[in-house]
Amino acid sequence: MHLSEYPEVVVEAYDVSRAGDDIGPVRREIMVKRVAKAQRDLYRKLFLAMHQFRNHEDQFTPAMQRLAKSMSHIHDKDKYLVAYRSLRLQRGQRDFIANGLAVAPKYFPAIEAEFKNQGIPIEITRLAFVESSFNLKAHSKVGASGVYQIMPATGRQYLKMFSGIDERNDPIKASRAAAKLLRLNYEMTGTWPLAITAYNHGVGGIRRATHVVGSNNIIDLINRYRGNSFGFASKNFYASFLGVLATLKDAGRLFPDVPRVSALAFTPIRLGKPTSIRELKKKYSLSVTQIAALNPDITSGVLRSAGTLPKGYVLKVPALPTATTSILNASLPPNS
Hints:
Blueprint: E1 2-3, H1 25-52, H2 62-70, H3 79-86, E2 87-88, H4 94-101, H5 108-117, H6 127-132, H7 152-158, E3 161-162, E4 165-166, H8 171-189, H9 192-201, H10 203-213, H11 218-224, H12 232-235, H13 237-249, H14 251-254, E5 266-270, E6 275-276, H15 277-284, H16 288-294, H17 300-304, E7 308-309, E8 314-318, H18 322-329
Antiparallel strand pairs: 1-2, 3-4, 5-8, 6-7
Helix pairs in contact: 1-3, 5-8, 7-8, 8-9, 9-10
């Protein structure tokens, strides 16, 4: 539990990892939310009382004194009222990041190559952990999909999206769209912190914010811009990225139990004609499971019905011998 306006102030931390082990996950979640709401209501009352008696801190209770000490570096006279209004619960991210680390190394070599090819610092590939914790099945309520949470409009601009195929759900293909969007953001904002923030907030909104504030420094935007849609998520998006980057650089120490995985070994093949899943299985001696694992952009419906993939679709198959690969790729464009 912390304050959205002063996110460095942690009011209290709760370990609910073993709460309600005997009641099942659904009832456990309900119980945790109920307890969390009660605690938040309690602290809101405390902060409101602290604001009302802010000129008599010597009369604070021990609980109030603890909170006041954690906010002693803040000099706003209304800081306790701000705290009352901005109390926020944030679920820990350790489990989500650990799950992502068990998957992401399969894809990062190819993704880093795509970012490097487009002139994007390879550290920014880790933005996928901020967006989705590298969850291959991530899908938002506003329609964003995949590890880079590509919106439909962006997907249709840079990727293939039609019945049975959604390249936003293939981390490697989606990275092409993410890199193009980040490059555009950078060209329009002039700095990588703003380009990354624009990935969340939209480049138009960031350009408007820099104009209002008269600065392209991300710190100035966070401290001084008061746009209605520039809320907690947008203000803290770049800081979240830096936090994830620092965490992943020290992943070996922080996540010693996460198994190490190797990069995917595959050969891309552009289909020269519409081809059914049944034909592909026979031609390359593949199972449906293998096709699905290497090509998460193919929907389960197409796989179950042995549907047809369109001409021009780039299929990933297990790595073929060098000679065979050369023959197959001879007709592929460089960006395939």
